[in-house]
Amino acid sequence: MNGFTLVFATLAIAYGWGWWRLKRGSREWPLWRLVVFWLSALAIIAVMSPPSMHWAHRDFRGHMVVHLVAGMIAPLGLVMAAPVSLALKNVPVHWGRRWVGFVSLPPIRVLSHPVTAALLNIGGMMVLYLTDLYATMLHSPGFALWLHWHFIIAGCLFSWAIAGPDPAPKRPALEWRFGVLVASMAVHAMLSKWMYRFHFPASMPIDQVRQGAELMFYAGELPEALLVYLLARQWMRSRYRETPASMAS
Amino acid sequence: MNEMNEIVRQRIGATLLAAILLGIGVMAALDEIVFHQLLAWHHFVEIDNSALALASDGVLHTLELVMLVVGGALMLRLHETGQHAGGFRGAGFLLGMGGFQLFDGIVDHKILGLHQVRYVDNLLIYDLGWNAAGLLLLAIGYWLLRRARRGAASSQR
């Protein structure tokens, strides 16, 4: 059993336990959130399993699939399942104040700022693909392991900073978060086209790089579009309130 | 007069904006699906593209996707709260479609030179057809807009 399996299986069990405790106490917690959390945890366990990792190690397309699942799709699901809110409902009230105190700490606020989160995400990818770092990673198991954790954590951080449902005081304005999201999507699209055209990472065969880059462009767009939708819903809800007439109808 | 008040309380500007965003997003998606993927007249990346051309291509593509999703979220919200203005949806949608087609034909194909409509000798015919389609959509959109301003659109009667 590898570390990813251990961590995400534990988190999935903990989430299920919290969900079950609320249900038993007849306090509702949406079933879809449990399903989304479990599927996301399962997806990470699957792509980080030995067969998938071997494929990702040999083949750039495999690497890209792992990146898409572990760095974009699964983190979005983990964050949208609101695990912190669920945890806080299961513990004494004063823990909520501690959480708010924790996320209000200056270093945490800097780290979870959308700009920081975007730089860690897309900046990390630019360094990995456009420099020799990719070849270095293939020859250094320790660095590769660290990099995969980086993908997962940076992905969660980004989803959370942009549109996370968990309590976060003094969050940057919606317009700011929206701007950062659009900018990082543009860089993602641009990077994948550059990789296709100029053959990055250079250490991998051109056919694999091209198919991987197309995968990155098109499949990466799905979680991005979902994130845009979730943020746009929050934005429009705060901008266009229910009117008495519309509530009556 | 009463009818005018009714229209004013509905958000004409926001409805038009949502419809235009949706029109742009749908036309861009159609362009990508029909011409890039089904017909393969042009490709994901053309061999002679510069880094800058690809960057602008990436930015434009992202904006198109964002417009589609945000336009959808805005239109959904306007309908949820009953603030949508009938008659302006179709007008805005066609104006957005035509506007994108013309923008794509002139800025993307000619000024930025991202790709051509089709890689053939008599390109002029393809360019004229492309931009004429855009103008036609814009003209219908404008006609619908004038009708909606008069309160004569079918969804206002």
From TrEMBL, chain A:
It comes from the Bacteria. It is a multi-pass membrane protein. One of its GO terms (cellular component) is plasma membrane. It comes from Salinicola socius. Its main location: membrane. The chain crosses the membrane at residues 6-22, 34-53, 65-88, 108-131, 143-164, 176-195, 215-232. Pfam families: Caa3_CtaG. This is Cytochrome c oxidase assembly protein. Keywords: Cell membrane, Membrane, Transmembrane, Transmembrane helix. The keyword Aminoacyl-tRNA synthetase does not apply. The keyword Transmembrane helix applies. It is found in: Cell membrane.
